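chain below, 388 aa
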Amino acid sequence: MHKKEIIVSSATIMFYIAVGTTALALQVLFINKVSDFLISILPAVYWSAVLISSPFWGMLADNLSAKKAILVFTTFISGIILFLHAVFMSYTQIFLLRIAFGFFSSAFLPVSLSILLEDALSSEAGKRASLFTLSRAFGFLISGYVASLILLFFATNDLFIYGSFFVVLSVLFLMFIRDKNESNDPTHNVTSIRQSFKLPGKAFITRNNGHLLVIALALRHINIMSLNALMYVYMLRKGIPDFLLGTISSFNTLVQVILMYPLGALSDKIGRKPLYLTGFTLSAIVPIAFILSSDPLSFSLSFVLIGFSFSSLISGVTPFLKDIAPEGREGEALSFLNISRSIGSIIGPVLAGILVTIGSYEIMFETMTVITVIATILALFTKETKIN
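prediction:
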């Protein structure tokens, strides 16, 4: 790997260790203190902020040509906000902090991935993108073990403190990135900021029916993010000890670490569509696997299935979005990864909370399977972007 790839990959690992430990911490912190519904909407609050801010950061980074500066600033502020989670721990305070954290942390994915994909040819975009997704998966994998160790020996709020430490490490890595073509023209900067408030994806998102893929992604994320919102609560109610939660869920990211790079390379050879169609199909099976799970082994297998489905999906989707983007608008295009995830993460947890409250976990899981089948059908109508 080149120096830039090593730096971005290392920073990504550190950042997503923090994200993973935080997601688990919130569910353990509030179980039996507030309702499952209130727990489920915390991800929706976070992703509402991401939905609004992620396109802005992506377009601002493209327009200002100051990707490093934006990434370092937003990541540093994210670390401060995450530390405050350990200080202000009432539900209302955490609710507000999740909004703030979502606003600033939303820059990380589109901007860092855009830096990584700068000057990448279509024939190598899949492999290059897989470095980011592999690093993110590795960060989530480590976060599971870190969370388990902290919960075994320390208090829940220590997860936030250690999380902020990993974000600071991420910032230190990012400082070594060389920013290309940074503009120091104030007039250009003001114009660029104004342009960053425009509608993202205008004039290119419909290429190869990319808009259908974004809708399908949002529907798929409704499925997975509804599970994420309550999966630890569900496992606790099934009798799984809290110190095993991180270890069991780490099978998801372990599979991603193993498969991400090979599947990214495969997308450069056989195309994007076969991979993301596989990912959609497997995602529809995931909720059924959770219904059938009742012990650590069966839950571990369910997380293996999540890892396989996501690895396939993202290995095709990420280079697809890069392929349809005009030169210089890669950050804007890649922000749709966050946009679709945000929409799913807003609707999914709320829908999950409602279905669990008025029905049961089984009804919620079955509903998510139906939604993901619809997403798979939509994805069938997209067109391959890989140029042979």
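Residues 3-379 form a domain with the Growth Hormone; Chain: A; fold (CATH 1.20.1250.20). The longest helix spans residues 122-153.
thats it, cya
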